[in-house]
# Entry
Amino acid sequence: MPTTRPGANGLGMDLLTSVAGSFAETYAEAREKFLAALAAASTDPRVYANPNKGPDGGDLACETAWIGSEDAAKVLVVISATHGVEGFCGSGIQVDWLTDDGPARLPHGVAVLMVHALNCHGFAWWRRVTEEGCDLNRNFIDFTQPVPDNPGHDELVDAFVPASLDEATIEAGERQIAKFRKAHGELAFQSARKAGQYRHAHSVFFGGFEETWSRRTLARIFDDYRLGDRTTVSVVDVHTGLGPFGYGEPICGHKRGSVGLDRVLSMYGHSTGLPAEGQSFSIPLHGTQRAFWQPRLEDRYTYVALEFGTFDTDRGRRTLRADHWLHNQGDVDWDDPRTREIKMDLRTQYYPATDDWKEMVLWRGRQVLRQTLDGLTRFG
# Structure
């Protein structure tokens, strides 16, 4: 695997050098590195301040940056931290692109919009959910209409997030889950667990009762950068937690026969994941971010969730169970040893932080962003 590639100066950043410098260990460090990369690229950020604070009392914000001509007709949007703690991965990809001569290699007529830490609260607190306790990637539904039902989650909710983490309660929950899996199959179980639910605010994959701060902020970003006026917008929303360790799958929800799917397939080829057709590490989900872009841009956009694999989903289920239980107890003492253990387990699940994983992430991230930019030059 080559570790360099041509840049505007004839040299690309060495991949292992970027592995050492692009990633962070905390939200504050990730924010600092992103802002430093923008400054080095002579680009000013736009700040969308979140009214909450991080566990260290620090300020929180989603920051954005526009690279390229303000009048560019075609735009690549790169989003990190839709799922909070997964932002360690997305932020690393954003910093790598900025410091690897990405701005100097932009095709003519194409701009890049970086959206850093969309769910900054979850990023800072090492959670997948927002400050409202919502899974942001289940929050993009029309709350004026009846919400989707998830009877499987209703049945298993006390097993997914029990009132106690004592051994007897956990064992009872595992027996209930095993019984459900045997009776209904693995797909039904995964749908019950994570397709999205809108009834149990204390549980996992809760889509909310209303729009979150992060969703409203994305709408502000859309308007502020006049994305509705562009001819083509391609969104790469970086996620982690599904699939083989270190592999990045561009997961696509565009329907068969649509312009969006045709364009996605032309960019990413056979690596494209199609949950609706059973060809993905993901399953079909309710309220994903694609539902935000679709009504605004119709046939003028593509959206993929670039999903990097970490560890198995049952490990993820256990780490989410503990984190939701912890926050259901009230105020969280970040210095408590049990808190630190639960938080580190969760962060590791969604950000392994090993050098080999980070190298795979950056290599694939560079490839997918290049493929997306190349595709935008071909689209009308």
Observations:
- The longest helix spans residues 355-378.
- Residues 243 and 281 are 6 Å apart (CA to CA).
